[in-house]
């Protein structure tokens, strides 16, 4: 019966991996307070141009230029899942189901610096190129519950054998047979993710003449992420609310034998070239910047954790494993 837990764990890990990688890394573009006033900054000739239009910074006056920015961001993220077997969740027998997560980043720092001398502009930019906060789903994710619902379907398939241990509920349709007399399910779940992609770029712009300038530079990105989640207390629910914990089918001597926990750290780094050009004449300014795709190779360190709060991550990796993977 131990294999049952291994199958459930594999399903949960694969489901969470799909959720984490879907859509790839979101690039943060609000790297200066000026972005909050006007989001079209790509032709800006100002200190914020170190990020948005580095070639155009060459047209600024000689001397030192510095911008320091601190921002706060929060949002609610809602995921909708319409898996049919969610109807057998005795705590919330509805589908489609909404899973709400709360994201909060108390401080998002960035700075842009430029030193202009004659035709040259030497520049540096530090920011959170991606991520920058935490998101918490107090009731887990739909992909997690889908695994539990499938386990509930398995329990209904075994109803003829389990009925002597856990009487079926005559008011619940058995999804495995389509007849009345089946089980519901119950469980506890939680998910929390944290992503920080620190970016540092350096480069130089050269003003070819009074109208045209070019830029070349490089950006380095260091990633540090953590994902923690669990599915616990999985149980079949029969007549009159009677419960049969799944752990009794895995290891009856261990009440936590069916619990599934995920605790993963990811770290990695990557570099990408940046080029830019700016053409300025009178009131017209035309600018373009291109950042090549950053190829990052993230290292995973995974282990089970004992608590959902205040996790000292590195101390729990003695029995963990390391896997490298490619990320755009």
Strand content: over 45%
* Low-pLDDT residue spans: 1-23, 305-328
Question: How many strand elements?
Answer: 12
Biggest sheet, open or closed, and with what strands and sense? 10 strands, antiparallel
- Looking at how many chains there are and whether they match, the oligomeric state comes to single chain
Please report the distance between the alpha carbons of the first and last residues: 39 Å
The level of helicity is 10-25%
Task: From the structure above, extract its key features.
single chain, 328 residues, two-stranded antiparallel ribbon
How would you concisely characterize the structure shown here?
Helix content is 16%, strand content 50%. Strands 1, 2, 3, 6, 7, 8, 9, 10, 11 and 12 form a 10-stranded antiparallel β-sheet that branches. It has helices at 2-21, 34-37, 49-52, 142-157, 159-162, 247-250, and strands spanning 63-81, 97-117, 120-137, 169-173, 180-182, 184-207, 212-237, 243-245, 260-281, 284-291, 296-302, 321-327.
Walk me through what this model shows.
Helix 1 (2-21) runs antiparallel to helix 4 (142-157). The chain has helices at residues 2-21, 34-37, 49-52, 142-157, 159-162, 247-250; strands at 63-81, 97-117, 120-137, 169-173, 180-182, 184-207, 212-237, 243-245, 260-281, 284-291, 296-302, 321-327. The chain starts with a helix and ends with a strand. The chain is of the alpha+beta class and 328 residues long. Strand 4 (169-173) and strand 5 form a beta hairpin. It is elongated.
């Amino acid at each position: 019966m131990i294999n049952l837990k291994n199958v459930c764990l594999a399903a949960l890990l694969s489901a969470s991996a799909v959720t984490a990688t879907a859509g790839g890394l979101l690039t943060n573009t609000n790297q200066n307070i000026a972005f909050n006033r006007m989001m079209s900054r790509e032709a800006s000739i100002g200190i914020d141009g170190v990020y948005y239009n580095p070639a155009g910074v060459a047209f600024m006056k000689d001397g030192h230029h510095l911008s320091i920015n601190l921002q706060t961001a929060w949002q609610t993220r809602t995921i909708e899942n319409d898996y049919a077997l969610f109807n057998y969740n005795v705590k919330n027998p509805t589908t489609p189901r909404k899973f709400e997560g709360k994201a909060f980043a108390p401080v998002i720092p960035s700075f842009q610096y430029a030193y202009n001398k004659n035709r040259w502009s030497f520049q540096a930019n530090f920011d959170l190129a991606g991520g920058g906060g935490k998101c918490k789903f107090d009731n887990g994710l739909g992909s997690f519950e889908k695994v539990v619902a499938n386990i509930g379907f398995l329990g209904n398939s075994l109803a003829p054998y389990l009925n002597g241990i856990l009487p079926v509920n005559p008011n619940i349709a058995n999804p495995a047979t389509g007849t009345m007399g089946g089980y519901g399910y119950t469980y506890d779940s939680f998910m929390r993710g944290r992503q920080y992609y620190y970016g540092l770029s350096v480069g130089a712009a050269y003003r070819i003449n009074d109208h045209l300038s070019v830029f070349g530079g490089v950006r380095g990105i260091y990633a540090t992420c953590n994902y923690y989640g669990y599915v616990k207390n999985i149980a079949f629910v029969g007549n009159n609310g009677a419960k049969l914990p799944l752990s009794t089918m895995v290891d009856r001597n261990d009440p936590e034998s069916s619990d599934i926990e995920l605790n993963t750290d990811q770290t990695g780094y990557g570099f990408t070239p940046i080029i830019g050009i700016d053409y300025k004449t009178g009131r017209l300014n035309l600018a373009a910047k291109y950042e090549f795709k950053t190829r990052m190779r993230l290292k995973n360190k995974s282990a089970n954790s004992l608590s959902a709060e205040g996790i000292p991550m590195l101390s729990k990796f003695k029995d963990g494993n390391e896997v490298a993977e490619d990320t755009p």
